[in-house]
Amino acid sequence: MSSTAGTERDSDPQSSTTPDPDTSTTPQSNRPAGPPTKSTRATARPRVAVVGGSLSGPTMALLLLQAGVEDVALYEAVPASAPQGGGLIGLEHSSLDVLDHLGVPQDEFVRYDSEAVMHITLCQRRPGQVARHLYAGRNTTWTLLHTALSRRLPTDVLHTGARVTGLSAEHDRPLLHFADGNTAPADLVIFADGRSSTGRRLLDPQRRLHYAGYVAHRGQTTTTRPTLHDFLRFEASEHSGMQFNVAPIPDGADWTFYLSATPAQYEDFFGASPTRRLFALPQHITAAARAEVDASAEQYLPEEQAALVHATTTRMAAPVMDIEPPTRMVWPIGAGHAVLLGDALAPVRPHTARGANNGIEQAWGLTAALTQHRKYHADLTTALDGWQRRHLPAAVAAVQLGPELGRRFGLGTV
Ligand SMILES: Cc1cc2nc3c(=O)[nH]c(=O)nc-3n(C[C@H](O)[C@H](O)[C@H](O)COP(=O)(O)OP(=O)(O)OC[C@H]3O[C@@H](n4cnc5c(N)ncnc54)[C@H](O)[C@@H]3O)c2cc1C
User: Fold this and answer.
1) What's the CA gap between 45 and 68, in Å, rounded?
2) Ligand 1 center from residue 192 Cα (angstroms)
3) Structural domains for the chain
4) What is the percentage of the chain residues whose pLDDT exceeds 90?
5) C-alpha span between 117 and 254 (Å, rounded)
6) Which residues of the chain carry a pLDDT beneath 50?
7) Cα separation, 290 vs 303, whole angstroms
8) Using a 6 Å CB cutoff, which residues line ligand 1?
9) β-bridge pairing 210-220 and 188-191
């Protein structure tokens, strides 16, 4: 896939790589009210640029194409050949229905259809009370879902190896800037570029990630466990300082072990600070990190789960991060707009199981707003305002829920 198709060589060396605060971040309330202007009518066939090709971005691009928005480009920083990884993700019915609407059969990305969550309380490493409840959704993995989405993207829509570095307003239109010096104009820029979002840094720079004081250690085994069908959650007691989850995935099991770690320990375990290394891939896992996780498994988990952890060779980790809740999702850029979506808007703690769900639900809502604009010439600024009003509260609630859950498990510093 070409990394430059659909972009234009930047011919203006003066062109800024960050938005001009005077032209591109004017609050919407400063814009003239009234009937749709010529420009909003003229963009009823808007050019849409989506930044980020993981989960929220491809869902967004596919929904737009399905809704008849023809001029869509999806830019992903990582080259197509680069390995990306990710583990188990619970999708709620709202998200499953969006995927259904896109024509993605559920059995393509849900391989174990159990709805059961077994909540197991441990007492001195032995399983005590077991509470069973049902999850209003199904489990998938990042890999299954990402593959299902990306294989449906037309090749002329997806541009891999295209890292966005800036956004400016030129000729009254948003202009994306890329690391290789290319640029691409758009009427609407949708940043779905994840936890370390460039879009958030440009549009909402006050909101910075800060480390919550604990780590989601992850592992994937390559041997199947015939007795494992459900999602199992182990907790020692309230405030015990750990949580362990395990569930089946194709050809193995996926576990997440939440454990506290100081910033210095994080750096020792993964070779960089939590704010610099937001995903520790298998090659970043040091012997110190392995030893810490193995020892904690020995300390807290029943023998069977401890043995599973010890035998896991493929390990990853993600520091748990917090951020101020968002206060807006939409920014005017000249006569166009830029929005934040998914983890780019609100990177929530993993226990909330809301990150991917938020992104998919927001993409669905944004498609409705753009459809009203495209088909019925609804004023685009007003349509985007309505989208923000409907989806911001859920994003704020999920950001606020994370620290509550962390406190309940006795994890981290809050
Ligand atoms: C342990 C764990 C468990 C989880 N469990 C759940 C769960 O049960 N349910 C749930 O809903 N969520 C869960 N999540 C969260 C979920 O994984 C994320 O919310 C989801 O992956 C976010 O998707 P996204 O597409 O918004 O962002 P990301 O997956 O972060 O993708 C961002 C993409 O943008 C690209 N990119 C970044 N910068 C640029 C740039 N400058 N230019 C171009 N491209 C760029 C990146 O390469 C990447 O492909 C969990 C997370 C963890 C760590």
Assistant:
1) 9
2) 9
3) 8-84+144-208+324-409 (3.50.50.60), 113-137+209-322 (3.30.9.60)
4) 81
5) 14
6) 1-43, 414
7) 17
8) 51-57, 75-78, 86, 89-90, 163-164, 192-195, 198, 216, 218, 256, 318, 342-343, 350, 353-357, 359
9) unpaired
